[in-house]
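hey can u run this one w/ pyridoxal-5'-phosphate bound, need the structure tokens asap thx
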Amino acid sequence: MAKTLPDRPLRPATQLVRGGTMRSGYDETSEALFLTSGFVYDSAEQAEATFLGTADHFQYSRFANPTLSMLEQRLCLLEGAEACRLTATGMAAVHAAMLSHLKTGDRVVASRALFGSCHWIVSTLLPRYGIQAEFVDCGDLGQWQRALAKPANLVLLETPSNPMLEMVDLAAVCDLAHAAGAVVVVDNVFATPLLQKPLQFGADVVVYSCTKHMDGQGRVLGGAVLGRKKWVDEVLQPFVRNTGPAMSPFNAWVILKGLETLHLRLPAMCRSAAAIADFLAERSEVARVLYPFRVDHPQQALAKAQMAAGGSLVTFDVKGGKDAAFRFMNALRIIDVSNNLGDSKSLVTHPATTTHMRVGAEERAKLGITDGTIRFSVGLEDVADLIADLSEALDSIAPAAPATRRVPLAVEMVRAPEPLPDTAEPAAKPKRARAKAQPEPAAESGAAMLFELASPLPEVPRRKG
Ligand SMILES: Cc1ncc(COP(=O)(O)O)c(C=O)c1O
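ok here u go:
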């Protein structure tokens, strides 16, 4: 028999390990993997009642599956959402969240800085169905105001954005969107549910690629859509049930196990990313470094108002364009070249020739992606080894360049023991936290700190049908 978890709000680490667990009749410790496409009924009458919705019984894994239900409930607890549906990939989640809601004649406003495939959905797919789309620059509230002065049906945004780590003011844009009649869909992949909770800033729907930090070990693909129960049941569920982007139960099981360690992995990755950003900023071969919590990030105050830490991604430009970027990437001996992110293995990506190749040169220029831009997904290796690898690869771009500040400073900073504040009581947060830009001490580095974003959590009913 599964124990009933206490009613009081649980801290994120406990939610990640315990949330959603349903035990079968065998009283297993680990969540069971229900690798089954269908379910059997005691009788034809029970089958009929299940299809009528009057009996509570699983039907078919395209609609629902017990392993997926456990993951859905765990993600609801973590996000503070009423309901969740899982999909086979993050892109299936973005597509389902948008297409389930939209119809011909509707209007979408989206941040320009979107992952390449999300950009394609807005710029290319939606117009084919007679849905107008307009892009605005992430950080320019005036542009959001102008675009949302006209009625709109849906706003799609990503914050921090892939790959330039630009921030959108969630509370301000949600207010504008709601006044225009739009629902706000936030792609929260870069922040993860531990670092940013868009629903608390007024967003209506949050989407994830579970492929990234949630699995966290580069094994499986997955996506999640979270929102209000009424919207999920009435708008999203008929779409996913009938179009079939279901997540495999095996992938759901892997992601359940991945989540159990997210609270340990993510702070370590954030601490290393902050130290690496500081290290890169000192190197003469690097033209600019973008890291949300660094004092030189143009939106540092907004990042700190919305996020608990700067995240595990660092974006930087090497001097010398594509040639230098390729030579640098090819010289790395620990860090791999890949287009994935959020993995325990550190990965570098050249967005201009991979993830953002198809958005075109003009759009890349608007986004600030140059031929020297490199996106670095910081993993779980020892940060000293990562910095040494980066340092040697940078040396190989400009062997004659005078040595700039060296590795050990940053390494020492990261190695200083840093207690995590998980033992603190979760602070009661207002339902709607408005982002307020706070002045920051000038000398502050991008070092990560984690906080608890705990609000009274809604009861999430277990879905069967
Ligand atoms: C911000 C963002 N959204 C969505 C996706 C799509 O996720 P998936 O690859 O799981 O379909 C990605 C993938 O890199 C991403 O970075």
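The mean pLDDT is 89. anyway lmk if its weird
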